[in-house]
Amino acid sequence: MKDTVAGAEPATPAALGASRSRESAVEVVDLTRIYGDGLGVKALDGVCLGVRSGEFIAIMGPSGSGKSTLLHLLGALDRPTAGRIAVAGRDLATVRDLDAFRARTVGLVFQLHNLIPTLTALENVEVPMYEGPFAGQARRERARQLLAWVGLAGRLDHRPGQLSGGERQRVAVARALANRPSVILADEPTGSLDSSSGAEVLRLLRDLNRAEGTTVILVTHDPLIALATDRIVTLRDGRVQRDQPVADADRHDLEVFRRSDVGRLIFGEDALTPTPLPAGPDQERQQGVRASPAGRGVGGEGVSRGRTGG
Amino acid sequence: MIVRNLLRRKTRTVLTTVGIGIGIAAIVALVAIADGYSAQFTSMLTKSGADLTIAQADVADTSLSAIDEEVGRKVAAMPDVAHVSGMIFSVVPLEKMPYFIVFGYDPAQFGIRHFKIREGRLIGESRPGSREIMMGSSAARALKKRIGERVRIYGASYQVIGIYETGTPFEDGGGVITLREAQEIFKKPKQVSLFQVKLRSVDAADRVQNEVERRFKEITVSKSAEFAEGTQDVQMARGFAWSISAIAILAGGVGMMNTVLMSVFERTREIGVLRALGWRRRRVLWMILQESLLLSFLGGIVGVGLGIGLVSLLSFTSMGSWLAPAYSAGLFAQALGTAIILGAIGGLYPAIRAAGLSPVEALRYE
What we know:
The complex is a heterodimer of chains A (310) and B (366). Chain A has 310 residues and is α/β, with parallel strands linked by helices. Helices cover 35% and strands 20% of the residues of chain A. In chain A, a hairpin with a 2-residue loop joins strand 9 (231-236) and strand 10. Chain A starts with a helix and ends in a 19-residue tail after the last helix. In chain B, the strands form two sheets. In chain B, strands 1, 3, 4, 5, 6, 7, 8, 9, 11 and 12 form a ten-stranded mixed sheet that branches. Chain B has a two-stranded antiparallel ribbon with strand order 2-10. In chain B, helix 1 (2-8) crosses helix 11 (281-314), helix 2 packs antiparallel against helix 12 (329-356) and helix 9 runs parallel beside helix 12. Classes of the chains: A alpha/beta (310), B alpha+beta (366).
């Protein structure tokens, strides 16, 4: 089973069919979400936001600012109290089958990987495909290709418990891509990872965005992580406080970030051409991890440089 | 995925399976015994070739039935009736066989003819008061009695003059004396427990049945093959079997619902993830339901095994010679069906709960 994948050239996201739509990816108008009745908590208070297709944006803000609520609303996990949301050109208020929307239009990456512990990496990637267009052998094949693309071709039959934190999160990214979503919604995807594993996940998302134009919306409270994106939207008390392109960010901050390990991994020379992670070094890395399975991949991830940038 | 979910908590799965298994085992064992009891009763009455069986109406236990011999004579005189054979039976506790059944037959009537003599001879009317008994083969084995030896029944000593076999455990585990002596020691002067009736033509069965019931008060006439099912004994045994089983099943079912509910609670977050990834409520519902169905199906299979084991253990006890459990495909189907229905009912509530979880709240669940 592994042979067919290891031998083959890992497919590019385009071949995997990550889709890119021309219209705006996300339109949010006057979005309000109040928890509880009447005098409940106003998690979002009249948020307006437009995200063009192919953008890579970060949503920032302190805890309680409404970041996660916004993401849940965009992912159709929750219903707004007032306001309008359109994702990939579809007004969520008019979407009849929200389950199908969740399965096919958006791809979710959580802070905690949230993989199903009893299933192998391959089976975890297949989970959303039960509601998608892929069936039978095609489903399995696609799951294999996606895992190969995130650099886990040799880990197909591992359970989450046998994977490092970074590997689990990469499985989660593969799972989010399963049904060719037009928008990836990532809720602090690096939040529970060490910086080098986090950088890899971030780079995956950036590769996806750069090479395939998939819209990525990343929620983070880490300002340096946010600098890896194109645009930063800051929420405070349920309102948009600031919305600016990363290019306009503090030049000093940007410089510091680009020199950090995370920044180098993302913006460094090897990152200039977003290509699928090469199979060779990948294999070595996996063996390194296998030798110290309890190491949670801190040193085992094979990034020799020290940890900084957090 | 279903199987792996169940394997997550192996001990709990095993315990729950055993819990359901015990309930199903109770059904299998008790109903098989009750069915066997009924089947033995039926074979006792049909092997003689009788078409109809007459007993006293409304007795709690067939061995308490008493009908005057006079009734038999009058029935025998009816045009459609070929022969009438009276019979008394009663349980006589012996030292080594607490459920020794003593039958009283008139050697001149047809009822005694289905006792196939293996050794010795039939009891005879030749010498009244001779205190002769013929014993069933398994009773003779259990009591270690040979021809010529004696057994005490209600203080009187009987000489074993023959050993028979009929293939019906009730009979093979008992003994036969003459009707006269049975009437004496069981205090049924000029009475019998049952009359067996042979007709000239089976077609007359309904007619004779109605006629006899009309003419004689407080008696009941049944086709011999159906007599056992109609008796209070069999109905009680069966009712007893099902009510004990119902209690056991209820306990197992509550245990199962608890297990499935616990596993849903534990997996709240996971279920939230599945929903967030686009799984429909239906799919979540079906997943949980399948888990509980698989659990109860396994419980059913364990239960059938346990039930058979239980009955074979019982056969080593003093009532063992009596037991002739009747296992039928129908009984196993009933047992497994009960288990599966249990699984469906026990799993439905947890499954509905799981399917009803809001993805956002389930994801926040720690």
